[in-house]
């Protein structure tokens, strides 16, 4: 049982293994309490009225619904943990006592996806005359074909690449869907990684490394990976905002369009729920077979 002056956020975060999860919960809780250290006495003073006021303030500041729901989930989980410890009797963030937050669209939410031609343009936009060319090209191929989350890509080591029979896989020791997962590496991607290994002159350690003089050889952060993808997309003339997750969406969609089953894509993308994979199918079908295509006012050369 935590004492009245214990740092509850630090103790709460011990429940989670993934660094990104810990950072998200830490930021969310510190944002709500307005302090880096939260004691039991502070936590006991929180009421559902305060939680509702916090949600209202975030809505007034135009925070995205997904951000609101994540912050509420952080608070709800934190107070549920205190209840499990016997420190609280009720949860001030319980769904039955706080205001509802509108959802951001679910399966109808527009997902940014690149076409096959745009994906080629993205790859071709990599400057192979620059020192970072081999690395950046390999990164784009890996994100597209292995549909990795940004955190999964950032954690890659060369030791995680291994053969399984006549195939090659990338081990994902710690990922959103659980520990000890793996994803198939197509030959094209494995060849890119081999080229990168030769370029570094290394067969172990981080796959994505800084080539900057101030941080040479260090593992790239998730932010750096996003920036590489985003800057390359802008150079390719792609108008949409493109990040690492865009390539995950793109890989899933291109696989479905090429004939992969929903179950195959679910397995490859490591989606826990089939409904998540179905979002790509719904968007494709909604755009490919839309009533908008039947509305004709004669603007395209028709005669009235």
Automatic annotation (TrEMBL):
<dbReference type="InterPro" id="IPR044068">
    <property type="entry name" value="CB"/>
</dbReference>
<dbReference type="Pfam" id="PF02899">
    <property type="entry name" value="Phage_int_SAM_1"/>
</dbReference>
<dbReference type="InterPro" id="IPR002104">
    <property type="entry name" value="Integrase_catalytic"/>
</dbReference>
<dbReference type="GO" id="GO:0015074">
    <property type="term" value="P:DNA integration"/>
</dbReference>
<feature type="domain" description="Core-binding (CB)">
    <location>
        <begin position="3"/>
        <end position="83"/>
    </location>
</feature>
<keyword id="KW-0238">DNA-binding</keyword>
<dbReference type="InterPro" id="IPR013762">
    <property type="entry name" value="Integrase-like_cat_sf"/>
</dbReference>
<dbReference type="InterPro" id="IPR010998">
    <property type="entry name" value="Integrase_recombinase_N"/>
</dbReference>
<dbReference type="InterPro" id="IPR050090">
    <property type="entry name" value="Tyrosine_recombinase_XerCD"/>
</dbReference>
<keyword id="KW-0233">DNA recombination</keyword>
<dbReference type="InterPro" id="IPR011010">
    <property type="entry name" value="DNA_brk_join_enz"/>
</dbReference>
<dbReference type="GO" id="GO:0003677">
    <property type="term" value="F:DNA binding"/>
</dbReference>
<comment type="similarity">
    <text>Belongs to the 'phage' integrase family.</text>
</comment>
<dbReference type="InterPro" id="IPR004107">
    <property type="entry name" value="Integrase_SAM-like_N"/>
</dbReference>
<protein>
    <recommendedName>
        <fullName>Integrase</fullName>
    </recommendedName>
</protein>
<keyword id="KW-0229">DNA integration</keyword>
<feature type="domain" description="Tyr recombinase">
    <location>
        <begin position="109"/>
        <end position="293"/>
    </location>
</feature>
<dbReference type="GO" id="GO:0006310">
    <property type="term" value="P:DNA recombination"/>
</dbReference>
<dbReference type="Pfam" id="PF00589">
    <property type="entry name" value="Phage_integrase"/>
</dbReference>
């Amino acid at each position: 049982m935590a004492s009245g002056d214990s740092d509850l956020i630090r103790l709460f975060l011990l429940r989670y293994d993934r660094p990104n999860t810990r950072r998200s919960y830490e930021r969310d809780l510190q944002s709500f309490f307005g302090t880096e250290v939260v004691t039991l006495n502070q936590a006991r003073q929180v009421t559902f009225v305060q939680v509702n006021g916090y949600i209202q303030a975030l809505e007034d500041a135009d925070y995205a619904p997904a951000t609101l729901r994540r912050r509420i989930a952080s608070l709800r989980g934190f107070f549920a943990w205190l209840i499990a410890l016997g420190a609280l009797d009720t949860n001030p963030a319980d769904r039955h006592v706080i205001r509802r937050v509108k959802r951001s669209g679910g399966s109808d939410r527009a997902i940014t996806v690149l076409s096959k031609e745009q994906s080629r343009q993205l790859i071709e936009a990599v400057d192979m005359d620059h020192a970072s060319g081999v690395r950046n090209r390999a990164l784009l191929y890996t994100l597209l074909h292995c549909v990795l989350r940004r955190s999964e890509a950032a954690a890659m080591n060369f030791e995680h690449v291994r053969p399984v029979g006549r195939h090659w896989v990338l081990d994902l020791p710690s990922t959103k869907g659980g520990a000890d997962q793996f994803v198939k590496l197509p030959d094209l991607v494995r060849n890119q990684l081999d080229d990168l290994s030769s370029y570094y002159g290394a067969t172990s350690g981080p796959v994505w490394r800084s080539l900057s003089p101030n941080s040479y050889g260090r593992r790239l952060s998730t932010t750096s990976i996003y920036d590489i993808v985003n800057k390359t997309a802008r150079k390719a003339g792609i108008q949409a905002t493109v990040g690492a997750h865009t390539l995950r969406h793109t890989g899933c969609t291109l696989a479905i369009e090429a004939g992969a089953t929903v179950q195959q894509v679910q397995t490859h993308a490591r989606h826990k729920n089939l409904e998540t994979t179905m979002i790509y199918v719904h968007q494709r079908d909604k755009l490919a077979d839309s009533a908008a295509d039947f509305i004709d006012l004669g603007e395209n050369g028709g005669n009235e």
